[in-house]
Amino acid sequence: MGVLKYAKTGLAVLFLVVSYSTLYGQLTTSPIQKNPSIHQFLEHNPNYTFQPKFKNKFGRRDTLELPFFDDFSERNLYPDSLKWLNNQVYVNNHFPYQPPTINVATFDGLDSKGNPYRNTINKDFSGPGDSLISQPINLKDSSGFLYAISDSIVFSFFYQPNGLGYHLNSEDSLRLWFKAANNLWVQVWSDGGQALTTKFNHVSIPILDINYLHKGFQFMFTTYTRQVGNANHWHVDYVLLDKDRSSNDDSYNDYAIQNTPSPLLNSYTQMPYSHFSVNPMNHIVDSVYLRLSNLYKDPKTLQIRHQASINGSLIASTEFKNSTKNIDAQASAVRNLPPYSSFTGLSSEDPIIINRMVEVRENGVANDYKRNDSISFTQEFSDFYAYDDGTVEQGFGFDQNTNPSNIHGQVAYGFDIAKEDTLYAIATYFNQAVYDVSRKRFNYRIWKDLSGVNSATEDEIIYESEELFPTYSSVNNWRTFTPHYLDTTLILSPGRYYIGWIQKSMFNLNVGWDKNYGYSNNPDKINRNIYYKTFSNWSNNDLPSGTIMMRPHFGTPKEIYASVKRIDLGNNSIKIYPNPANDIVYLPRVFSHIRICDVHGKQVLEFWNNSNLNVSGLKEGAYFVFLNDNLKRFYTAKLIIHKK
Question: In this structure, are strands 495-503 and 443-449 parallel, antiparallel, or unpaired?
Fold first, then answer.
């Protein structure tokens, strides 16, 4: 039996990086190189600055006052510049495992732009990683006198090694520093890396040295790590510095939402609405799950409210209802909400975006700290089926170091299609690994049956592409899915089908892997719709938790993953002639911008303000033509090149 491996990536995109791995039975992991979410944000916000200098809107203070608190729930991507001096850490909620409150500060080997430090990927080289430096904090009291040791000032925080990130080892460390009155930084705490740990630990440090009691006090977290990019993660949460505290008290008067609630669909995170509407009750989840945390020292009975709306119109709502069970002191628990049953009869035009909101309270009264008590997010219906939630934590493929190099490897990914429709594209998220496989060949396959699965006696292959190379697609400088447009019309009747690939030698194709499986309340869940084959038998044993980032697209062909806001070309197809063509193709009128892409989505020709296209340089085969006019209307056409 062959060995699969899954490797680490960073959220929504980007590359794999090191050659060492961790075994999971027959599977291994490896980390990735960059942070796609940060790349996307910076592309969309070219004028962004972190504002490293402290700004107080009243202009009367140059330092912060006690208490200092941040649980990172108010920010995404970067920390709050009113509290922190730098922005190297990544604020997110998909790398930690069951954090105290939603969002943490993740430390890795990437700089503030999401790139490897010193542009280096080398597991044998260690150096400084991320740091997080507080703004100056005034440790003088309101009368202008220095606080005293007797004021019981305590610094506390939670931290987690690894989480859902790539593993640490003893060479990696997280360190805490205090700035003394003489402006020297003093290390006051540290911890070494540990492999495969997921627990959040609480640290409480009383300030017992008067050298720290000054107007410009600061603290700083730093990491020392191997230079492996988006890996070797530490997660820090719930940072508090305040007086009149006991260092032995690890409880807080707070409860919070821990994760993004689960999707509204029972099997998929997304699917085409026209497929969903065939039989909605087959696809609506019986309960929406979310995880709540209780940081109090007493049990709590919390109430939950949730709403859903489209374009401002409410389609579902429940008022605050009691949780069925208490949440134990300093613990967390999964709670469920009633299903939404009223999002039927919507427009069938994709995408459809449902805006969702969940809020938690105790006895109808809001908590003192409200930011972590509510969350807003979306449920989308688009033209594809997906098990993944769009965030990439790892990568997936065969391990060339374990499997014989001369055997074939196949991966098949099962989907249950709800209605007859045209499958026009397969979209795959490719990571870029330390091993260059950009010239390694593979073929896409689509199966109706797999031998030995669901009583099938043999493989039934209904589509196979020509040999391809993995294409690392980027949009606006961030990594995204790469579409493969089918070069034949493939109309699928309702039922189960499998998309995937075959490779005729052993290498790690390194397809994106969503560690959260689209259900953040259960990141340990395994997608049993994935099968792999190296010799004669298909198997789904020894799979890691998570799911592949590969999606089948249905309906009218459209340009996908080509811009941040996906362009839906719908039925705006036009006729071009001659078709098939050899040298010149004529359009019905002048178009301001024309792009011709091959069946893998790669642009091969581009024209401006033209009504005829010279395609004599194209090889025989199928192509897609994407056009827009001066009124910003978009059109598409399919082109066949045939050499006489």
Answer: antiparallel
Q: What is the mean pLDDT of residues 542-559?
A: 89
| Angle ∠(337,388,456) on CA atoms, nearest 5 | 105
Task: Judge whether residue 529 has pLDDT over 60.
Answer: yes
Are residues 517 and 547 in contact, defined by beta-carbon separation less than 8 angstroms?
yes
**Single-letter residue type at 133:** I
pLDDT in tens, 394-424: 788 887 677 666 788 999 999 999 999 999 9
CA gap 70, 615 in Å, rounded? 58
Whether this model's pTM surpasses 0.90 = no
Q: Are 408 and 537 in contact (CB under 8 A)?
A: no
Report the SS3 class of residue 95: coil
For residue range 25-34, list pLDDT tens digits in order: 233 444 455 5
**Residue found by looking up tokens 């992991």 in the block:** 29
> Are 557 and 626 in contact, with CB atoms under 8 Å apart?
no
- Domains plus CATH for the chain? 33-251 (2.60.120.260), 273-375 (2.60.40.10), 394-554 (2.60.120), 584-641 (no CATH)
Beta strands in 549-643 (DSSP E): 550-554, 584-598, 603-614, 621-628, 634-641
Q: How far is it, in rounded angstroms, from Cα 5 to Cα 22?
A: 9
Cβ 71 vs Cβ 295: under 8 Å: no
Which structure tokens are listed for 192?
């070494």
Average pLDDT estimate for 463-473: 89
| Helical H segments across 260-351, by residue range | 273-276
| Higher-confidence position of 55 and 10 | 55
Q: Report how far apart the first and last C-alpha atoms of the chain are (Å, whole number).
A: 47
Compute the CA torsion angle 409, 11, 172, 123 (nearest 10 deg).
40
As a whole number of angstroms, the longest Cα–Cα distance in the chain is 92
Q: How many CB atoms within 10 Å of residue 91?
A: 19
The upper half-sphere exposure of residue 346, i.e. CA atoms within 13 Å in the direction of its Cβ, equals 26
Question: Token pair of 373, please?
Answer: 């008590």
So what's the pLDDT on residue 519? 58
If you count them, how many residues does the chain have? 644
Confidence category of residue 40, pLDDT binned at 50, 70, 90: low
Q: Residue 125: what pLDDT?
A: 79
Q: How far is CA 259 from the centre of its chain?
A: 13
String of b and e for 312-351 (b: at least 16 CB within 10 Å)?
eeebbeeebeebeeebeebebbebbbeebeebeeeeeebb
